[in-house]
Amino acid sequence: FIISDLPDIAAGEGYYVTYKTKIDDDVIANYEKGKEWFWNEAHARGEDSKGGDHHIKTTVDGSADLSRIDKSGSQEVIKDANGNDVSVIKWDVEIKNSTSDMVGTVVIDTLGEGLQYYTGRPILVKRYDENHDEIKPDVEIPWQNVTVNGNQMSFTLPEGHKFDISYYTTFVQPENGVIKYTNSVKATVNGKEEQSQGSANVVGFTPKV
After folding, report:
1. Alpha helices (H) in 3-146, listed in sequence order
2. Residue 184: CB partners within 8 Å, gap ≥ 6?
3. Tell me: the pLDDT tens digits for 124-158?
4. 63 CB contacts (<8 Å, ≥6 apart)?
5. How far apart are CA 203 and CA 76, in angstroms?
């Protein structure tokens, strides 16, 4: 694009031009790694107060993380149905913008050794439309609607293009020091299977009596 007929400015002053670009859908669908590199070039031409011609060109390289799923975990203490403290790991899954509605897409989650699903609270799903606007209300998926098979569970997504999903697991309490637990998730986004592995460092916990 070209911007012309800008007002004159004094020596030492300048213009800042800010805009956004959209990554082509075919690049998103066919990337080979999680990060893609791009470049952008801009030119500026004008005259100074004495009629001298000036031409400036700059090229900027940048990258965009095109992975569609991220996962992370953190240790928390929550209350169970009886008001007792429970030490858990909260797992957060972000499914990034899909080019189409993902309703009905199956999310498959696999626990690492030493973890068990905590079913005292439902899976919470925050969802967003194609314009990144939040869709209300949030969706709570009860565990009776979740398929659990050993260390793996699966459930289907509601309507939406982007999701923030959270749920809890219990874990084998470390006798001392810190233990790192891992957890992985996968789903098909934009026609391609995406997956991510998250981890959480936990310490021993003594519940309050």
Report:
1. 25-30
2. 71, 109, 110, 112, 195, 196, 197, 198
3. 999 999 988 999 999 999 999 999 999 999 999 99
4. 35, 36, 37, 38
5. 11
pTM score, whole prediction: 0.72
* Span 177-184, average pLDDT: 92
* CA dihedral of 196, 126, 190, 65, whole degrees rounded to 10: -50
SS3 label, residue 90: strand
CA distances 159 to 130, 138, 150, 192, Å, are 11, 11, 28, 19
Per the CB < 8 A criterion, the answer to whether 192 and 29 are in contact is yes
State both tokens at 116.
């068990």
Is residue 193 classed as helix, strand or coil in its secondary structure? strand
